[in-house]
Design goal:
CATH topology of one domain: Arc Repressor Mutant, subunit A
Oligomer: single chain
Largest sheet: none
CATH architecture of one domain: Orthogonal Bundle
Order of helices and strands: HHHHHHHHHHHHHHHHHHH
Distance between the termini: 43 Å
Number of helices: 19
Structural class: mainly alpha
Length: 381
């Protein structure tokens, strides 16, 4: 907008714009806006804001595979969080978890375990269901990398269950990817592909593009024995995307990449492989993903409850008739003001009832309360 803008307003906007561009895969613009945001937060003396932007900047560098610089940004952010401030107990965990994931990408599993387990302790202290779910997924990735598939499956199931409860589709997409890779590694290839396709579908719906090339490669590793021609096109599209973005493959993925290429070449023969490679190399990674989704759509599980064991049902918690009535209206999508007009009570009274409902159900948001109540039969669907 034209005209003067308070520095902190602009800093916050730059940080949020940069992180949005990160998810959309526009790394150059993301870095530019995040760096501007860091500088403005620093000038304004907003240390927690600066740490948040630094941590986001580190995430961009991690995806771009500049792992030493990513580590430096996350360490700088963590140092700020550990200064005396009123940012809240949950804030340092983002930097702890980010440092853990950098260590994991560098193959330093012991350091990654220390950092990610500490991040989970902080997440539990904060009480944030979203953060706890995210930390479960981080730990699942660690256990998968360490070939501890039983532990990886337990963690990803927990993370996915929470993500479903709170309606966090970004975390659901991430969890389904990890779940697909774990299930495939245990030998259930069709089901593993199905979970991966479900993750791909959510990614394309939400526009999560920052690591789509890597995801498409992981999918190709799983399906290469089922459809070597399609897998070749996926590999080629991902390779073309990496050539444009300059994002290198993680060292831990190089062996899987070489194996997938060799498997496809052996299955197709040199001539057919070269033809499929050329076709895939002209495709965008999004188009390749859509082709894979269409090819294996029948394997994707239906419904939202995809974890191995559904979350336990919620007991009645002694909701009053009025609270049940308000919960039903909340489930219908009505605002507090509309509910107040419907029941001839004040919006403040509605707000107090909703607060009591969330407390009784031990849930953080209206959406989580609706989902939980529906599953428990407290309200009609």
């Amino acid at each position: 907008m034209p005209g003067p803008v308070p520095p902190l307003v602009r800093a916050d906007a730059l940080w949020k714009l940069g992180y949005l561009q990160f998810y959309l895969g526009d790394f150059t613009a993301a870095r530019d806006h995040l760096e501007q945001g860091v500088a403005l937060f620093e000038v304004a003396g907003d240390r927690p804001g600066m740490a948040t932007a630094l941590d986001s900047l580190g995430n961009v560098l991690r995806i771009q595979r500049d792992l030493p610089k990513a580590r430096a940004y996350h360490e700088q952010a963590l140092a700020v969080w550990r200064e005396p401030n009123d940012a809240g107990p949950e804030m340092p965990l983002a930097s702890l978890a980010s440092l853990g994931m950098v260590a994991l990408d560098q193959g330093e599993l012991g350091e990654a375990r220390t950092l990610l387990e500490e991040a989970m302790v902080v997440a539990r202290k904060s009480g944030s269901r979203r953060q706890i779910a995210n930390r479960y997924l981080n730990l699942a990735r660690l256990e998968f990398a360490d070939a501890r598939l039983t532990d990886a499956r337990e963690y990803v199931d927990r993370g996915l269950a929470i993500a479903e409860e709170i309606g966090d589709q970004i975390q659901m997409a991430a969890a389904l990817e990890v779940l697909g890779r774990v299930v495939n590694e245990t030998g259930d290839q069709p089901r593993g592909v199905g979970f991966l396709v479900a993750s791909l579908r959510l990614r394309l719906k939400l526009g999560i593009l920052h690591d789509l090339a890597e995801f498409v490669e992981h999918l190709s590793y799983v399906i290469v024995s089922l459809d070597p021609a399609l897998a070749t096109r996926l590999l080629a599209a991902a390779a073309a995307d990496r050539e444009v973005t300059g994002v290198a493959r993680l060292a831990g993925d190089v062996t899987a990449w070489n194996q997938a290429v060799a498997t496809a070449q052996a299955a197709l023969g040199a001539t057919e492989f070269d033809g499929e490679w050329r076709a895939g190399h002209t495709m965008t990674v999004i188009a390749a993903g859509r082709e894979a989704e269409a090819a294996f759509a029948a394997l994707a599980p239906s419904g939202m409850s995809l974890a191995a064991d559904p979350p336990p049902s919620t007991p009645d918690f002694d909701l009053t008739p009025r609270e049940l009535e308000i919960l039903q209206l909340v489930a219908a999508g009505h605002t507090n003001r509309v509910i107040a007009a419907t029941l001839f009570i004040s919006p403040a009274t509605v707000k107090r009832h909703v607060t009591n409902i969330l407390a009784k159900l031990n849930l953080p948001t209206r959406a989580a309360a609706i989902s939980h109540a529906l599953r428990a039969g407290l309200i009609d669907g």
